[in-house]
Model the fold of this input.
Amino acid sequence: MTKLQLGVLTVWIAFTLSAFGYLIKDRLVDFDESNKLAGIEYQQLSGYLLPYAKPVNRLGQNTLLHFSTPSCECQQYSEKHIENLNKLAGANNFVIKNVVINEHNIIPSTPSVALIDESGDVVYFVPYGQGLACSQTAGYAQTMLNNYLKGYTANIVVKEAKGCYCNVLIG
Done:
């Protein structure tokens, strides 16, 4: 390989890596970039999210809330997660509700999901996954729902994750 070819190859590799970094920079964002969930635990979050479950949710029934924002390109990457969750939740008599929001004081990003238990408490509030296209994991939500169905309740509010999320404006 000549010095010219080596130089061209080096420039091409540097350009390719720079372009890749530029293109993914906007896709890997913090789930709670604005720190809306700082100091918020599941008890407080329950008070904010329970109204979205009503009037459908009656005490004594589990509810799965899917949060989305209009024109969020990241929603497409969560569709498989949503489909799997709905299948499992539906088979276990959960109320399933889709909530479209434009702005909110507590919900930091979408797509995200919450499980409200039969007593009205948040069992978990999480993004569907993390990483590029939120595909790095099989899904936080799927794992949490499976654990809940096995009798494990941890009341988890995920505040730190990086992935394809659309930040929700403060209302």
Remarks:
- DSSP finds four helices and nine strands in the chain.
